Hints:
Blueprint: E1 18-23, H1 27-43, E2 51-56, H2 59-72, E3 77-85, H3 91-110, E4 114-121, H4 124-129, H5 138-153
Helix pairs in contact: 1-5, 2-3
Amino acid sequence: MHKSVDNITTVNRSDFRVAIIAGQFNPEVTEGLQRGATRALSEAGVAEAHIDTYPVAGSFEVAELAAHLAKAVRYDAIIALGAIVKGETSHDEHLARAVTESILTSATTSGVPIGLGIITANTFEQAVARAADDNGNRGYHAVKAALALFEQMHRKL
Length: 157
């Protein structure tokens, strides 16, 4: 069950800068994730002019570009979107682990929140369902998580 982070609004989000990195492998899924992420940013009051979108080949490249952008500290948050679907071998498991570890390392070493919207699914149908235009959209939730983390990281203690 997801807890709402919609009420966290201590930062002026009109000046907030966000990068969306979207893997293009499985575009039927990643396009839905991107719609969800964009919707969440709009609802949060992030100006469209402050959202930069970077299409890359797949989830591995999402992690590489996230590391590069996080080091540059140009963005207040980065949203990583992609889809890894199980195949006949264990390739998906190795890829998912490498991508997740890379994104976590980038986030913790840079201090830039990175919303993880990389779907891992056993079937293509599961991946499509997680990118649907509804409240279960993982791109939408990746934005909400990154915004909430940014708010917590910048609270006055």
